[in-house]
Amino acid sequence: MDYLSLLSERTKRISVSAIREILKAASRPGMISLAGGIPAPESFPIEIIGKLSDKVIQTYGPSAFQYDLTEGFPPLRKVLCTHLSSKDIFVTPDEILITSGSQGALDAIGKILISPGDVVAVEAPTYLGAIQAFNPYEPHYINLETDDDGLIPSSLEKALSSHRVKFIYLVPTFQNPTGRTISLERRREIASIIIRHNVLLVEDDPYGDLRYRGKAIPSIKTMAPDHIIYLSTLSKVFAPGLRIGFCLAPEMIQKWLVIAKQGVDLHTSTFNQALAAEYIAGNYLEKTVPKIIRIYQPRLDKMLDALDRYFPKEFYWSRPDGGMFIWAEGPEGMDMQSIYQESLRQNVTFVPGRYFYTAKGQGMATMRLNFTMAGEAAIDDSIKTIAAILKKRIQGKAA
Amino acid sequence: MDYLSLLSERTKRISVSAIREILKAASRPGMISLAGGIPAPESFPIEIIGKLSDKVIQTYGPSAFQYDLTEGFPPLRKVLCTHLSSKDIFVTPDEILITSGSQGALDAIGKILISPGDVVAVEAPTYLGAIQAFNPYEPHYINLETDDDGLIPSSLEKALSSHRVKFIYLVPTFQNPTGRTISLERRREIASIIIRHNVLLVEDDPYGDLRYRGKAIPSIKTMAPDHIIYLSTLSKVFAPGLRIGFCLAPEMIQKWLVIAKQGVDLHTSTFNQALAAEYIAGNYLEKTVPKIIRIYQPRLDKMLDALDRYFPKEFYWSRPDGGMFIWAEGPEGMDMQSIYQESLRQNVTFVPGRYFYTAKGQGMATMRLNFTMAGEAAIDDSIKTIAAILKKRIQGKAA
């Protein structure tokens, strides 16, 4: 059969992600990986999960294994309200939709909102998973400018004045890939701009709880609730393999997200939602997050220290207060793809930054460095290795 | 905000399913439900799941809770090969894609194959979940005729001769909603037709293991492997709340299904896949299925017996050898929606058959009766209740 002729028009927009190959290479034995966006396995509360499994079976019995509401398992939606109120987000259980990871929310958002050619405004660079979720629905992207304080509000204002934007997609806190956080002042400006332009914003907040210093900054959701779909996940504060995300959208949007989700997976795993409900209700979430931070904070510090010591002076890098990533930019003309190839030969991987841009040719001199998977000694070694390759390349150019 | 104006073109094809309301009504206390397609909670191997949770934590440790391959958890894919070989389907682990329920496979199939306006051929009536998965991708449906032996091959031949069909969707064994099974002779004819017309067929097989009498009939996949995407689920033989489905597609199609799934949910719950792997590897699946059959078979027999005794002679109904449903058709002009309303007032629910048709106005005199959720006495009572309403209506018409 000529299978290729069977593919839909939209499939042509779904490219085979080169990053899949990078992450496969990262899992090879002996490799030090600064590539993935993957929590440290030692951060998983394995023993707690064992206890919670017994508790769930005792408490909920067969209903933890039965088909359930598309909207989500009611006990989980209930405890998430309490959890969210600690972030100044006040909602009722009915306003929460549980999704299969935040990826599930991104897919449903793309599906119900994007007609082919619709304009979606994204930070440049932006989260790759969002692009992968939206692409099959055939949007046109416009890029918003960013600096060390995150999205530049005037860039948003300009985009909204010159384009009919369907929605804006942002990761305001410890962004993937840059680790940057939008400042409080800018969040207020952004809220005011989206209200004035009457436009929808998708605020993706997977890393907010992983803050290693400084004070938490309120979500933009708290400033413009009717204009924002807020999404988050338990992947970084419980376990990613359980695939539990959640989202809060204005009622009319939420209704359609539920209907779209029903066609995609009926509902998210009842058992895993019950585990998550007991994890939060039993105060395990609030006890576990500080433990996770105690693992990650020294790794971030070690990586910043190593960058200071080893990286060429021609480089800039972000100095995040939390999350999982540091972003580094080299001098123009540097091809980070070829640096990556050389680094791979020396058993160190990272992700070339160009994969986080929606347009070709952007971000060629950039890289994303993850600091949660490798131990401190390995982080020091691997940054030293990459730095040596970079210096050699810069010297080669200068010669 | 005018949220309605934000919805995509495709969202207009995603209708709010009336069946959602029916299933909500079915869960009201005191209701006897013949409505859902839901396994009996007493069929769930709860104690086994408790043991398996401990086993999974011991055997796989943190990797059962980590991000995993989009293709699926390797140990599950491995044991599924053995399971499938007992059905004369011989594949390697690499050929298996684990999906979030079979719904996840249906969504990915729709996404990668259907361009707006593409023709999808379905049995009339057909599985509602497939329609819900495909609709957002804007197909045009054509209906295939069926009788007590399932799909009529000449109807398929005719459809393929007169339309350019993107794919055919069938539930050949104990179909939802009719309970009918396509005979061996017809399967061979269908295989020969799709090979001759060089067309793709999606064979959905969620109920095959729930056979209460007669001999298993090989899947069409065994007869035309290169032309078939075969999908199945553990929802009916393990637990639906774990959301574990799987599919086998020709290599080129499989590759795109994986990429589509990555954008939708990254991967299916690792923990639940590990539970499923241990469930099959520990021979619990083969021990549990006979137990499930011992619960369902007397319920099917009781319902057939009650239909024989109480239902008006003007009615036809299917006599399935397995699965979860009986299909009943009344005389033309009978409005099953209004029968449903009256039945609901008497605390008995079923699903009016018209929801299983892709075109409006079809199947008005039909109904789907589920026999797995209610006990035998309740089945007898509820069929008696519905029969009394039907008889009254028929007499009223005759008078």
Describe what you observe in this structure.
- The structure is a homodimer of 399-residue chains.
- Helices cover 42% and strands 15% of the residues of chain A.
- Chain A has 399 residues and is α/β, with parallel strands linked by helices.
- In chain A, the strands form four sheets. Chain A has a seven-stranded mixed sheet, with helices on both faces.
- The longest helix of chain A is centred in the last third of the chain and has 27 residues, at 284-310.
- The model of chain A has no long low-confidence stretch (mean pLDDT 95).
- Chains A and B meet through α2, α4, α5, α8 and α9 of A and α2, α4, α5, α8 and α9 of B.
Task: Please specify the SSE layout and strand pairing.
The structure is a homodimer of 399-residue chains.
Chain A: H1 18-26, E1 32-33, H2 46-60, H3 74-85, E2 96-100, H4 101-113, E3 119-123, H5 128-134, E4 140-144, E5 146-147, E6 150-151, H6 153-162, E7 165-170, H7 184-197, E8 200-204, E9 228-233, E10 244-248, H8 251-265, H9 270-281, H10 284-310, E11 316-317, E12 325-329, H11 336-345, E13 348-349, E14 351-352, E15 366-370, H12 376-398
Parallel strand pairs in A: 1-13, 3-4, 3-7, 7-8, 8-9
Antiparallel strand pairs in A: 2-10, 5-6, 9-10, 11-12, 12-15, 14-15
Helix pairs in contact in A: 2-9, 3-9, 4-5, 4-8, 6-7, 10-12
Low-confidence stretches of chain A: none
Quickly count the helices of chain A: 12
The geometry of chain A reads as globular
Strand content of chain A: 5-15%
Oligomer: homodimer
State the separation between the terminal residues of chain A, measured CA to CA: 55 Å
Q: Largest chain-chain contact?
A: A-B, 81 and 82 residues
Write out the CATH superfamily name of the largest domain in chain A.
Answer: Type I PLP-dependent aspartate aminotransferase-like (Major domain)
Helicity level of chain A: 40-55%
